[in-house]
Recover the amino acids of this structure.
């Protein structure tokens, strides 16, 4: 089997590449990145004959399609703003595809994947991705599902890469139409910082107020759980508190609209958030935080399929500490590995045919693609654990 790792030299996708080298059965692992120097450095550090590096530019559609042809699957680590372009290339090349984000631009390529009989799974990292698996694990034990609340804490610097700075601006864009909750059969758009709720994450993260965010789980879980009568789906998230304070201030003062400003008639107008994002990327403050890692918290209520009684399922996840006590999980890698490892797992499972959607083609959701236990088992091999508690509601 052959995998093309698009944007593979990035901080997160490079972790997925490392995971493929250690755990997967691929014969060829190609790191494709616009930054050829970074791709070659990563390939050299892996010291594996299956790995090679090439330069790729998804803005050149025809050239990228030719580079991808013949691969079984493309593991797409490009940014949100590039996912529409990258997915179109993958579809035309006739490969399976999987990426991290799942914000919707991929849907335009559905028919292309159908023509080639291939799958494309947009959005499989920690969230979206593992979160849907945790929610479905709970829902599978319920005869009726009443409410699902997905929450996560993403503990990383606000701008350790330009794509991460871009994600911050995207998720809190006041005009973003995808920031919705599912309530009584309808998707309801909400403003940034809507529906605050205190969530207790596993230590060392603890309690924090979280707000609605525009992630794919709201729509994919609504589709997957429609037959079980789900009434409410909410997806929340938080970053380190200093990041949240900054984003809240930027929102309150209108910066997140990214209005055009000019310094003087001799300068071209520029988006104010574009400038702030670039400052954060270049600053020490944008590259450091006190606490690193990831924490998921899923709460599902409904009627037990076994007893017929109201119950609440709570699932959380933990991973090796970021304090240096576990080699390979130090500081930022405790965050990047949490995101990159699920992407690698999904890539291997799709390419090897270990899915629950045999015969399907086109754009699919995590809920349609994997059995939760299969994902949990692979995570456990890497030291990432899912914890499950059931109590009377």
């Amino acid at each position: 089997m052959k995998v093309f790792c698009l944007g593979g030299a990035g901080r997160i996708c490079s972790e997925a590449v490392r995971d493929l080298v250690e755990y997967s059965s691929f014969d060829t692992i190609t790191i494709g990145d616009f930054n050829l120097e970074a791709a070659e450095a990563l390939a050299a550090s892996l010291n594996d004959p299956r790995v090679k590096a090439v330069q790729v530019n998804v803005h050149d559609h025809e050239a990228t399609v030719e580079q991808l042809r013949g691969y079984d699957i493309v593991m797409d680590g490009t940014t949100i703003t590039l996912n529409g372009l990258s997915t179109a290339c993958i579809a035309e090349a006739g490969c399976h595809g999987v990426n991290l984000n799942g914000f919707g631009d991929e849907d335009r390529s559905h028919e292309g994947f159908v023509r080639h009989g291939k799958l494309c799974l947009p959005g499989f990292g920690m969230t979206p991705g593992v979160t849907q698996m945790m929610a479905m694990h709970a829902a599978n034990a319920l005869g009726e599902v009443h409410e699902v609340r997905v929450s996560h804490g993403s503990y990383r610097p606000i701008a350790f890469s330009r794509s991460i700075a871009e994600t911050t601006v995207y998720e809190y864009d006041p005009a973003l139409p995808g920031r919705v909750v599912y309530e009584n059969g309808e998707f309801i758009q909400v403003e940034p910082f809507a529906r605050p709720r205190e969530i207790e994450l596993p230590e060392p993260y603890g309690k924090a107020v979280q707000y609605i965010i525009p992630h794919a789980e709201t729509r994919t879980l609504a589709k997957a759980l429609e037959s079980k009568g789900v009434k409410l789906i909410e997806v929340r998230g938080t970053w380190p508190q200093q990041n949240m304070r900054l984003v809240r201030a930027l929102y309150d003062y209108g910066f997140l609209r990214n209005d055009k400003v000019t310094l003087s008639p001799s300068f071209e107008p520029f988006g104010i958030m574009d400038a702030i994002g670039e400052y954060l990327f270049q600053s020490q403050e944008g590259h450091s935080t006190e606490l690193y890692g990831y924490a998921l918290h899923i709460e599902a209520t409904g009627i037990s399929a076994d007893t017929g009684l109201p119950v609440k399922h709570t699932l959380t996840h933990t991973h090796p500490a970021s304090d240096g006590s576990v080699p390979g999980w130090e500081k930022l890698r405790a965050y990047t590995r949490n995101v990159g490892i699920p992407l690698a797992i999904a890539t291997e499972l799709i390419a090897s045919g270990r899915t629950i959607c045999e015969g399907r083609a086109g754009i699919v959701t995590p809920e349609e693609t994997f059995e939760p236990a299969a994902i949990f088992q692979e995570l456990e091999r890497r030291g990432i654990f899912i914890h499950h508690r059931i109590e009377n509601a």
Observations:
- Residues 333-351 form the longest helix (19 residues).
